[in-house]
Amino acid sequence: MLILNLRESLAMFHTGIASSLALRAAEELDFETLEWFSFIIAIFSILLCAITLSSYRTTRSRRLLLVAVAFALFGVNALLSNYDVLVLNISPLEVAVASAVMSLIILVLFFAALVLKR
After folding, report:
1. Is the dihedral of CA 91, 72, 17, 34 positive or negative?
2. 3-state DSSP: the chain helix, strand, coil percent, rounded to 5?
3. Cβ-count burial of 61 within 10 angstroms (0-12 exposed, 13-18 middle, 19+ buried)?
């Protein structure tokens, strides 16, 4: 039970549900609903990555390439947060560390895309 609650808490945190109001609302959702939201987030971020890569092919802007990589990592992060223990047999602590590192890399990529000179 404790592992399931820890896993649910990590999944809620790493899919962007960090505010206290969202946490209270998410506690009422079952874990399957949370998995579906995470899956939708992953699909949407992969779609945004594809659109950004399409724009990159026409403009060859390094900014767009950085944003595309950030969207791809965001999708991987969303999938990893829910399908880690079931598929990969990874401990919740390892998932939390990997997710935090990916979140930091995503933020650095978005920041680099903003400040990068043409």
Report:
1. negative
2. 85, 0, 15
3. middle
